[in-house]
């Protein structure tokens, strides 16, 4: 497998991911080297016999190390707390809750605007792939708007794919 296709794959590569639990209206942002296994762990049985239902929203690949992925993850969390992001989320009205949208918009800002808080590692032109989960397909218009807004700046290449955990 070539290095570019390895970075586009969701298998055995560092990725940052967003999960949403619609029953509890909770969002989880994390990073892992094995997304399929990590989602299975999130959806484990609870002590009272229930099951958590975390749905993948998006996973971002293109990170070469755990440090790169952890840095990106923590910056998503920091930016999503900013007051302006609630206002930005209101511009993308749809069925996706604002707590999820704020994190998606934070990813977009990190990839194309906010160089002062996160810098893409130096070296070759980096390719980041956003693997969109089934959760976002509930509102195709909203997904189209999100995918067609500018996602990258000079020196970064962003690609969109459907999340495939098989």
Structure in words:
It is a single chain. By secondary structure, this protein is an alpha+beta fold. The chain has one domain (3-162). Helix content is 37%, strand content 23%. It has a 5-stranded mixed sheet with strand order 2-1-3-4-5, sandwiched between helices. It starts with a helix and ends with a strand.
Write the layout of secondary structure elements.
Layout: H1 3-8, E1 14-21, E2 26-32, H2 35-42, E3 55-63, H3 66-80, H4 83-91, H5 98-112, E4 126-132, H6 140-148, E5 156-162
Parallel strand pairs: 4-5
Antiparallel strand pairs: 1-2, 1-3, 3-4
- Through-space gap between termini: 17 Å
Name the strands of the widest sheet in spatial order. Answer: 2-1-3-4-5
In this structure, how is the largest beta sheet organized?
Answer: 5 strands, mixed
Estimate the helix proportion, in percent: 25-40%
| Apparent shape | globular
How many strands in all? 5
Report the mean per-residue pLDDT as an integer.
Answer: 79
Number of domains: 1
Strand content: 15-25%
Radius of gyration (CA) equals: 15 Å
Summarize the structure.
It comes from Dentiscutata erythropus. By secondary structure, this protein is α+β, with helices and mostly antiparallel strands.
List keywords for this structure.
166 residues, 5-stranded mixed sheet, 5 strands, 37% helix
